[in-house]
Amino acid sequence: MPEQLDHAFADANHPISEDIANELEAQIFSGKLKPGDRLVERQLAQDFNVSRQPVRDALKLLMRHGLISQLPTRGVAVASLRPKELNDLFVVRESLEALAARLACQNVANGADPTRLKRLLDENKRAILARDNETAFRTNAEFHEEVLALADNKMLTDILNPILMRMHRLSGDKLDLSTVHAEHVDLYEAITSGDLKIADMSARNHTSSYKDRTRKKLSESDEDATAS
């Protein structure tokens, strides 16, 4: 179960349910909450020192993002992925990321500013060199968010963001940060090249490499679980 929080949710401009969802999301991504772990509404309300309604709203938000799933009996649990579901996610992600890269490339060619994309790359590189994994993971995620911002298509963002969140959970803390950084540099250069085909190919190559690394990681995790 989630650790009891030491802080109170007191920001009137930020719904309590979003704070709870963000905290649970962080615990899922960090591995504190693992696939199959049950999330009990009453217990969560006690842990967060809130009523059950904001917890209920937070769980609905996480379910929309694909991070938790409804159990056959009452309740919800952290979502797990079967091989077919994992493959389906990658097929969809590759097409959508390629579309995002093409749109971003087109918009940059038409005057959209890619400065923040480059700034995130630089910050990510500094974090990797300093072994600041928290910042490195954050800037990796924000890089993809900025590509979507440059693509400037709300429908695409609404569809792709939940997929990226599920992928982020799969990568956990075992992401090869240097390899991902190099691929993001390639993607940045492709997006700013003005060539839509190069942008498309770079995004697809990045997704394909990520797919191979994720499958290897999951296979190694299964072997470790069997050995133990």
UniProtKB/TrEMBL annotation:
Sequence ranges assigned to domain HTH gntR-type in this UniProt record: 14-81
InterPro entries, per the entry: GntR_C, TF_FadR/GntR_C, Tscrpt_reg_HTH_GntR, WH-like_DNA-bd_sf, WH_DNA-bd_sf
Residue stretches of biased makeup (Basic and acidic residues): 209-220
Keywords attached to this entry: DNA-binding, Transcription, Transcription regulation
Domain of life where this protein originates: Bacteria
Sequence segments annotated as region (Disordered): 204-228
Molecular function as annotated in GO: DNA binding; DNA-binding transcription factor activity
A Pfam cross-reference name: FCD
PANTHER family in the record: TRANSCRIPTIONAL REGULATOR, GNTR FAMILY (PTHR43537), UXU OPERON TRANSCRIPTIONAL REGULATOR (PTHR43537:SF5)
Protein name: FCD domain-containing protein
Organism: Eggerthella guodeyinii
